[in-house]
Amino acid sequence: MTEVEMANARQNLVDLAVSQALDLRKIYVERIESAPDAFDALLTEVTQGGVERILVPGLHHLAVIGDPRAIRNDLQKDGVDVLIARHID
């Protein structure tokens, strides 16, 4: 992902949060060289509680840690909504 694509993805997350009147606390950025560190940090925060929903640029972004649909379903079973911002190519 280029820096421009990254900036667009971030803005789409911010726009989604604003449109849903959500408090966007943090944006986790997964870097190829350190994957899946960002997702691990996100999931640690989720398991500690207090996270009702996560926003991702696209469902496919969850693929770094497994099957995206299964991960979304597991999160939803645990009471965490997964909201999808518009897709970035």
Query: What ranges have pLDDT less than 50 throughout 5 or more consecutive residues?
Result: none
Which H/E pattern describes the elements? HHEHE
Order of adjacent strands in the largest pleated sheet? 1-2
Largest sheet: 2 strands, parallel
Structural domain count: 1
What share of the residues does DSSP label as strand, in percent?
A: 5-15%
Shape by Cα distribution:
globular
| Helical proportion, percent range | 40-55%
Number of helices: 3
Structural class: mainly alpha
The chain-level mean pLDDT equals: 92
Number of strands: 2
From the N-terminal CA to the C-terminal CA, the straight-line distance is 9 Å
Radius of gyration: 13 Å
Fold and architecture overview:
By secondary structure, the protein is mainly α. It has one domain. Helix content is 43%, strand content 9%. The protein contains three helices and two strands. The protein has a two-stranded parallel ribbon with strand order 1-2. The radius of gyration is 13 Å and the shape is globular. The chain starts with a helix and ends in a 5-residue tail after the last strand.
Brief descriptors of the model:
3 helices, 2 strands, 89 residues, single chain, two-stranded parallel sheet, mainly alpha
List the helices and strands and how they pair.
Layout: H1 3-19, H2 37-47, E1 53-56, H3 68-77, E2 81-84
Task: Summarize, please.
The protein is mainly alpha-helical and 89 residues long. Helices cover 43% and strands 9% of the residues.
